[in-house]
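Quick one:
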Amino acid sequence: MTDTLVRPGRRWPWSRRTRLGVDLALAIPLFLLETGWLVLDWTYGYGLAVWAAQGDRAEIDAAGLAHMERLRELLIAVLVLAVAAGVFRARWTVVTHLLVALLAGGALTAARQEWNHDHSPPSGCVRYSANC
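Output:
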């Protein structure tokens, strides 16, 4: 009568590694979804906006800035998901999210370099002269 029930210990998300099947079931579709979004946004989000601008520099600049903002938001979302997958010790999900983060970071770097190249003053230009 004095026996007490042993209370099972709490199971924290990081106490055990996520099973391989569950890990891959999350990693593969999320990788395809995120890389597909990246490619489709570059093609249709940015490419068609530049095409629709028909040479209007202000609209092309607005499309470029909006595209860089969407890339930054994707990069943040992917890194947050990678941290969450790391907490749940889902090894392959973390790896795929870090790969997508590298792709998004590279695309963001390329877009910013293109932006800086297009908007830099000509060489030999004095900053506040009349001809710049």
